[in-house]
Amino acid sequence: MSNTNVLYQHGTLALLVPGLLDGTITMKELLTHGDTGIGTGEGLDGELIILDGTPYQVDSTGSVNIVKGDFTLPFANIHYGNYHKLLSVENISQKELEKRILAQTSINTFFSIKVHGTFKDVKTRAVKKSHKPYDTLAKTAEAQSVFDRQEVSGTVLSYFSPTVFDGAAVAGFHHHFISDKHDFGGHLLSLGTVSGDVEIQQFDTLEQHLPVKNQDYMDFDFSQCDILGDIHKAE
């Protein structure tokens, strides 16, 4: 029986800030830790969303691809899905959605949200893959492509991280989106309104996995970086 109370995280958002963008875990290995998640590829190669064990990548052209087991990632969150219905919503804003979710849970633990329904004025992004020598996260993120849909049916998959873990993750919500037709998605920048069902899964354990076999990571001095500032600019 898989432990559905554990959130597995490979890498940290902090290591992306100075441009430590090597892929340090394969998709095959990542999927041994869950069937639901988000992440990005080596060199910030697109935005990933994993649903029911299938890893979808939204690349910088907007194409949605199913990636193979040898695809590598510098950062990912994954868990075994076991969601419970939290509420249903109709034509509410992203801000109101987040407000309602937080009113029924706690901001001091990790949880995942899955929202399926109809979304209006959706804006997403994906970054073009970069290669060594990598630029910083802020610089690399400038090469992002932005996509939008006036109305689309799909799924928002989100992780919420407590403030005390800001840097390891991004405090608050981190949203990714994929359409039901698997022809649109990415890191969610904004949405106008949503109508649909909201499900939640809370975790009591964070399993943090670090890329200790990557020498660039092991040798890097993070004390010179504005970790939190750069993370929040990029996110």
UniProtKB/TrEMBL annotation:
It catalyses: (2S)-2-acetolactate + H(+) = (R)-acetoin + CO2. One of its GO terms (biological process) is acetoin biosynthetic process. GO terms for molecular function: acetolactate decarboxylase activity. Its EC number is 4.1.1.5. Keywords: Acetoin biosynthesis, Decarboxylase, Lyase. Gene3D superfamilies: Hypothetical protein, similar to alpha- acetolactate decarboxylase, domain 2 (3.30.1330.80). Pathway: Polyol metabolism; (R,R)-butane-2,3-diol biosynthesis; (R,R)-butane-2,3-diol from pyruvate: step 2/3. Belongs to the alpha-acetolactate decarboxylase family. This is Alpha-acetolactate decarboxylase. PANTHER family: ALPHA-ACETOLACTATE DECARBOXYLASE.
